[in-house]
Amino acid sequence: MLEQLVEINNQIINQISDEEKKEKHLLIKKILDDKQCFLKMNIETSYAILRELNIPEENLKSTYLNLIDPINKENLVSVE
Fold first, then answer.
1. Does the pLDDT value for residue 66 go beyond 50?
2. pLDDT, position 72
3. What crossing angle do the helices spanning 43-52 and 19-32 adopt, rounded to 10°?
4. Domain residues of the chain, as ranges?
5. CA-CA distance, 60 to 40, in Å (whole number)?
């Protein structure tokens, strides 16, 4: 799921000509580099990022819950 959000953000960055919006998405890119970023931020910030990535309002809760689900191995950092 996180990889999909990174890809969506990259597509937005490549399509944006407005420098202010581009800066916002470059900041989101830095945040998304941390695989556990959604575990480290509050729900309001998480929802704001998801909205910036054009996640439909009706999918925000399920997307957020998927991102913070401890069973979702995609969100866990490998300790090898």
1. yes
2. 62
3. 130
4. 2-75
5. 17
